[in-house]
Amino acid sequence: MSAAPLPVADQAGRDRAATDLGSNLVVIAGAGTGKTSLLIERALTAIAGGHIRIEQLAAITFTEKATAEMKTRLAGSLEELWTIAGGGTPSAGGDVRVARSVFHRLADRPGFDAQEVADRVQEALHHLDRVAVRNIHGLCADLLRAFPRASGVDPGFSVDPGEAYAALLDEQWPRFLAAELGEEAPRSDLWARLLARVDLNTVATVGRDLARFAIPLALLTPRSAPPPPGELFRAEIDQLIADLDALLQRREEINPGRSTFATALEELGEGLTLLRDGGTAGLDTTLAAGGAVARRIGMKSAPRPSSKVASDVAGPARRTAAAAHELLRACATIDEDLTGDLLEAVAPFARHAREMALARGLVTFDALLHLTRDLLRDNPEVRDAIRSRYRLLLVDEFQDTDPVQYEIVLFLAEVDGGRSVDSYRAELAPGRLFIVGDPKQSIYRFRGADHAEFERATQRVLTAGGTALDLVANFRSVPGVIDAINALFTGPDTVWTAGPRQPPYVPLIGTRPAAEGDPPVEIWTVDPEAARNAASRRKAEGQIIAAEIAAAVAGPGGFAYGDFSIVFGALINLAAYLRPLRDLRIPFVIEGGHGFLQRPEVQAFRALLSALARPGDPIAFLAFLRSPAGAVTDVELAAYAAEHGTWTWQEARPDASRFPGLARARERLARLHDEIRSLPVDTAVHRILSRSDLLTLSAGTFEGAQGVANLRRLAGTAARLARDGGLSLHQVVETIDTGRAPELEGEASIEDEGRDAVQILTIHKAKGLENRVVIIPDLARQKPARRSDRRRAATLVRTSGHGQHVGVQIGRKSDHRVNAARLWLERENRRHEEAERVRLLYVALTRAADRAIVLAAGSRRPAPLIQALRAWGYDSAAPPDDGALLAGGCVRHRYVSPRRLSPAETGEPAAAVGAAVSAWNAAVSAAHRQSRRPLRSPSSLHDEASTPAGHHDSASRHQDGSREDRVQQATPDAGALGRCTGICVHRVLETWDGEANTLPMRLAQAARQAAARAGIDEAQVEQEARRVLSAFVTSPLAERFRQAHRVIRELPVLAPAADGSTWTGTIDLLLEDPDGNWFVIDHKTDRTSDPSTLRDRHGEQLSLYALAVAQALGLSEPPRAEIWHLRSGRAIPVDPTRARVALPPPPAPG
Amino acid sequence: GASMPSVHSPSSLEELGTRPLRYFFRDVLHVERPEPEPGPDHLAPRLLGTAVHQLLHDLYAQLAREQAFEQEPAALQARAAALLQTRWESWVAALIGRHILRLPFLWREEARRWKRAISTFIAADLATIADEGWQPVDFELHVQRALELGHGTVLPVRGIFDRLLQQRGRRCVGDYKTGRADLKSRVGVTNMLRGIALQVPLYRMLAAAPGTDHPSDEELQVELLRIGLTDREAGEAPARRVLFAGFDATAQDDGFRETLRVLASLLRAGCFPLHHDGRICDHCDYALACRTNHVPTREREAHAVDGADFRDIKAKTATKETLLAGVRAAAARPPAGDEETP
């Protein structure tokens, strides 16, 4: 048997965490310190040591994924421990270390009996299915099901992710209105007051929010007294008044010359005093009366000191004035009467809706937590029963859980026979509770995590006899990464400041061997020339990141794409980063974000589902027709509309001969509709997908595997909604379209988890994960992504010291109104978010095992997260030299620029690739020469005539370049300018309106595009094209164009030839003159103006076009044909009847 | 073969200028989702707006027939107040009445508030008319005209003036607004040049005498008049009346005509570019039918020659870049640093 693992810096704490089963422990586990292993180790020690049986263990995890991981690891470790205890040879898996460690510890105990341990473990393995490893919602559901009567739920209740409850609210609201606003109107005064101030939609929004179980019923009745703003904001007001007074003491300094700044400060101080002493009523009276204070508060901008004030005084003065002004304006939006009326009006609806939900067996996630808390609080005998079952409670990620969970955990950990009704006063049974968390990684404020509540709960455990342990030994990152992280959050300039909203920073200690070479942490400053604004900076960052990944994967370091994670604060502005990855063909997968429903393949599938679910919805039908599954062109749709076609597919009967695409698509939809009619909805959804061809279509595109996975996920979710929620197809589509299916976030996991792809994810999604290289872009973003619960009109507010209240906000940002509790919450959220932003950087950096890169940008006004880099010695106003070492040598600074990247690094074809493409094209041309192509271009007729061997690819031989594809195929040569000029001129004339002065507007862009494709100087192209067009617009040809009765441009031609092949091409211009004569015209820009040469080159082509027109229109003779030589402004007639080629005669009429 | 409208309304042109693809769906393909049957607690704003318009038209026309505008202001106000009682019953009360059966208290309250709002509006409006000396010429005036936009472009446009007033050679076109629209943004020159706010300048062009494409400020103005439940709105009261008396500079006038020419060219070419503003897309009925999230489509459109002018009018400004040439010259200049601000 091998030796026990070497001790690490915090070994004593780890040992105690694993073995001290007689104490409640609070383990603060820094990032990468192996907390999951520790949880497993403690569980194994308790089970194998005979302290508990496996069914007496309850482990609460944060996510479903963590639940699965913990179950797997628990089973694996038990199996290894059983093997070791039985004298066998364990496998080499990751769980061996834990099992071995447990075994060593048990073996050191007096009276150790290996067989006894083996027997206990074997029994645990036999009863593994009884272990309660759950996320908090799963555990709550178990408890409620075990005690349905006491908890007031239906024993067969279903957990509702939200859609069923939303449907219930939709159903109940009209009934509520009928009772409240009908003839009886029992509360008419209240409603009259309310409707005079807000519309019914606002009332409904508040009603729906209030119906959530997250808001305690007790707060709904009776109308509770609001906390006075003067008290809620007392500390802030007092501080501001003191600061203003202090500033006014220095009146001479802050108020030089004729400045009125001091007066403004006095007005602000007066307003604050009114607020403190008289609350919002005092403030309202002052505002209504007008006067200086009211005017000051009414101003949108805060007063600022004069520029003559010394900067050391001006800064604090400006900040104090701004803070006072902001607080007063914010308090001016408080309207307790209105919000009180609102809550009173809708409270009966909220109560009734909850009762209805429980009666129907619907329990939402919110309800699971709150009903369980209520069950435990109100039923001591239930608590006893549950506690007798669960003797050891392990809780993971304690810092990010809902405060209600703290209450549940404390009740469950109470001593046997405990009867406390306040969880925070419950006596805790020693050894029953093991909490693991890291407040430094608390980043879920928007989901209700509250650092103050975390502190309160952990303090309660400690004061009730528990012990706190710090885990600091990091197993994940190389020492260089650890040193850099510690330097960032402990240095003199660090932005990490411990306080009520920020825990103290505890440095990590690396355990991995140090790597030689460059520091593994880098700051990249993007070239300011390439980052002049946010969009260009992001584009530059994207290009640099993609090039770095491509180089690393191609290099000798043994990196794979899957070794890279790009982590963002939020998945917005992603396009700039994805494009370079696509250009370099770097596979990637996006985890999280809200873009799932907007993915093209998902949108196509939604369109198909909508068309089937809502046959009478014309927009759903249109969406299907325009999707890849319908594949009908806009031209056909427009033609159909011109015939007054109907847009409901069950009524539409498009003529298949005139609208073939539409008829085909409609027929397909009808067949599919018939096919699924008798199927259950969940089966139907899968059938629709399999019949739609969308899987095949998606698989064939770039990122096809992702597209297929996304389609399958949508189908799976739709089927789940239909099956579990009992929804119709119509309701399923509604639920998905309105974003009420929470699992439809981010891209689907690709089934092949071993797929080598760069991970793109949010920092929140990255939590709990690690990767070899972590790249953190977009640090220069000024506005952080807001995630808090701000959209809700009504929400629970837990104030500090003033109890719980319902916070209400109504109206738009510019004219919203709130109650004081909500205002307090908003301001508190803002401060928490500032602290959380720093923690996000900690979480992001600690995901890196071997290397971390942060993308910064020079700025005089740095973004908050760039300011944080100051602790490394990084000054964004004057970034260090390229290659400079920062933070005592653990961070390297680099200047990076997309301009330094080679074409290969930006996805442009390199010379070698270009040569390969040319060789390939040459081979294709040679193959074409050997074959008779089914589609022939009339422009090749001249070459065929001069090269009798057969059909030549004439692409490289033409000088006029009248078609774009020629340039694409051609290799750069002396004729490139001529061809580009031809393309450019054609492009301009395609949409020319006959006005001379509109030509230059189109010319510049057309020249740019043509030149870009050929890789030549656009100025040359523009100059040459301008010369040609100038000659043309002043010529009689242009006048004929203007005088034309009708013109048709860029007319496609597809004509069967007599020999069985098919001619294809495009007529530049079909023109009808005022006398009714039709002309087939081809624009030419050849340098020669010799008519016979031009006829020789282009006459056959033009003749064929004329014959094709005659054939298509059934004319007895072809229309006139002319080459318009634009440089000379001359028309060169061509006689179509002399054409060498022949077309079959037109079909007989009828 | 597309069924392109032959005459255009200002609102459809605004749609074209704001969201061309949506214009294609609605005005070319004629695909529209039928309005859902409103619940008992909901009255379609469009129906209410129409009823209020009809009430005002009926009431003002009656005042004009009775030559009440020539009477003393107090008499005019009194007569209007009396007429409101009967016209209210005919138009708005009739509409709301259907809802009153199901939620009587709610709709009586709503009716009371709307009646008060209309009464307040009429009183203020008649006071303004009397103070400024306007006399009515016509109400619900249907106007159609082929607008000469220069460079040979002619755009047929039709509109309905809610009313036309005159006073010593001056004329004023009035339009009632019952929605929550921000009236100031509808007379913002930048919005006009960008093709977003076309109604007011188009009305002014429609009202101009034939052959008088550039009436002076003195001769012709357009006013937007707001009628709504402003008592529910907190903060600064929204503008009740905004005026547009023509562009301040010839360059703006030229820029506006150029913008209309660009829109006309879109119609001629059958070119309906995507609109990429996610804030609008979130509320667009046609989002599912639109390929704005298809990256190749967006890339293609971003570089398409056809839509270049349309893309560039979105960068026009009221002062410097009133014309496309100015926009393009500005784009060619090195950009100033404009990293997003906090």
Features:
heterodimer; A: 1150 residues; eight-stranded mixed beta sheet; 43 helices; 12% strand; B: 342 residues; five-stranded mixed beta sheet
Question: What does this 3D model show about the protein?
Answer:
The complex is a heterodimer of chains A (1150) and B (342). Chain A is α/β, with parallel strands linked by helices and 1150 residues long. In chain A, 49% of the residues lie in helices and 12% in strands. The model of chain A is unreliable at 947-973 (pLDDT under 50). In chain B, a hairpin with a 2-residue loop joins strand 1 and strand 2. The chains are: A alpha/beta (1150), B alpha+beta (342). Chains A and B meet through helix 8, helix 9, helix 23, helix 25 and helix 26 of A and helix 2, helix 5, helix 9 and helix 13 of B.
Short structural description:
The complex is a heterodimer of chains A (1150) and B (342). Helix content of chain A is 49%, strand content 12%.
In terms of DSSP E residues, the strand content of chain B is 5-15%
By DSSP (H or I, 4+ residues per run), the number of helices of chain A equals 43
Give the rounded overall mean pLDDT of chain B: 86
> Low-confidence spans of chain B: pLDDT under 50, at least 5 residues?
335-342
Strand order of the largest sheet of chain A: 13-14-12-15-19-11-21-20
Give the integer mean of the pLDDT values of chain A.
86
Globally, the shape of chain A reads: globular
Class of secondary structure makeup of chain A: alpha/beta
What string, H for helix and E for strand, traces the elements of chain B in order? HHHHHEEEHHHEEHHHHH
Class by alpha and beta content of chain B: alpha+beta
Task: Please count the beta strands of chain A (DSSP E, at least 2 residues each).
Answer: 27
**Helix proportion range of chain A:** 40-55%
Terminus-to-terminus distance of chain B: 51 Å
The largest sheet of chain B has its strands arranged as 1-2-3-4-5
Share of residues in strands of chain A: 5-15%
